[in-house]
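User: Here's a chain of 89 residues. Predict its fold as C-alpha cells.
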Amino acid sequence: MAESVVFIGNKPIMNYVLATLTMLNEGSAEVAIKARGKAISRAVDVAEIVRNRFMPNLKVKNIKIDTEELESSDGKRLNVSTIEITLAK
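Assistant: Prediction complete.
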C-alpha cells in the first residue's frame, strides 16, 4: 500500500487534521505529516491536535528532521529545514 502522507502548507490547521483523520479512518495504519520551513510548527500542531483531541490511542512512531537544499529564483542556494512526523495506531 502507498504511504499515507499529509503535506503541510498554508491552509488552516483543521484542514490538515481532517486529512490525517480521514487517512487513518480509511484503514491506514500510519500517516506521515511532512512540512518545510515556516510550516514546521503547523505540522507539530496538527500531530498534537490529532493525538490529543481526536485519537488519544495514536503514538508518535518517528520524528525525522532534515535540511533540504533548494535553489532560489535568482540562483542562490538556500537551506530549508524539514520535519516528518509519523503517527501510528
